[in-house]
Amino acid sequence: MSQLWIDSTAFGEMLDEARRAYPLETGGVLVGYIADNDVPVVQHVIGPGLAARHRRHRFHPDHEWQCHRLDELFAASLGQAVYLGDWHTHPDGSPRMSWLDRRTLRGIARHREAQLSRPLMLIVGGGRETWNWRVHRYGSDVLIGFDINFDVLSLHKFQCASSSLVSDLD
Ligand SMILES: [Zn+2]
Fold first, then answer.
1. What is the CA(69)–ligand 1 centre distance, in A?
2. DSSP character for 112?
3. How far is the CA of 19 from the centre of ligand 1 (A)?
4. How far apart are CA 17 and CA 30, in angstroms?
5. What are the residues facing 122 on neighbouring strands?
6. How far is the CA of 164 from the centre of ligand 1 (A)?
7. What is the pLDDT of residues 57-80, one digit of tens each?
8. Residue 89 C-alpha to ligand 1 middle, in angstroms?
9. Cα–chain-centroid distance for residue 98?
10. Counting beta carbons within 10 angstroms of the beta carbon of residue 46, is it exposed (0 to 12), middle (13 to 18) or buried (19 or more)?
11. DSSP string for residues in 48-97
């Protein structure tokens, strides 16, 4: 199974936002880089933004604010941290992609500005006490119709190196 690495603090922020918005849907953007071995490394998770509108089974992000945050992270990382894909919740649902999710991921893969051939879609399902997550990575279009082939990645958390560096100096 292919892997995805995600910063443990960023992962915690994503679950906090999922809990905050529950029972409404929320989500945002995954930011990081693709390692040389083609493994995605998520360093930051951008939330929905204050002007986002949340519903039970959909949400509209504050796109302008998200783009601003993405620009900030890109600049702060000297161009290393880029858009890798999206994340969203399925309150009281499973973390599997819906038909609409697959069409959305197909659209992201085709979007030229993204310049990302295999975007990610991380879905967090559940609510209240228990959350489950599943990472999907676009593979290719299915020749007939609007469906896609995709991979499911195993998720691994890592601790940001800077925090361990600080404790080493203490
Ligand atoms: Zn969905």
1. 23
2. G
3. 16
4. 14
5. 87, 135
6. 35
7. 999 999 999 999 999 999 999 999
8. 7
9. 16
10. buried
11. --TT-EE-SS-EE--HHHHHHHHHHHHHHTTT--EEEEEEEEEETS-SSP
According to DSSP, the residues that pair with 85 across neighbouring strands are 30, 120
Q: What's at 61, amino acid-wise?
A: P
Decide: 95 and 133 in contact? Cβ < 8 Å.
yes
Q: What is the pLDDT of residues 127-145, one digit of tens each?
A: 888 999 999 999 999 988 8
Fold designation for 3-169? Cytidine Deaminase; domain 2 (3.40.140)
Q: What is the pTM of this model?
A: 0.91
What is the distance between the alpha carbons of residues 156 and 32, in angstroms, rounded to a whole number?
14
Tell how strand 82-91 and strand 59-60 pair up: unpaired
Instruction: Please state the rounded mean pLDDT for residues 142-166.
Output: 81
90 CA → ligand 1 middle, Å: 6
Domain ranges of the chain: 3-169
CA of 148 to the centre of ligand 1 (A): 15
Q: How far apart are the C-alpha atoms of 90 and 98, rounded to whole Å?
A: 10
| C-alpha closest to that of 68 among 116, 31, 117, 105 | 31
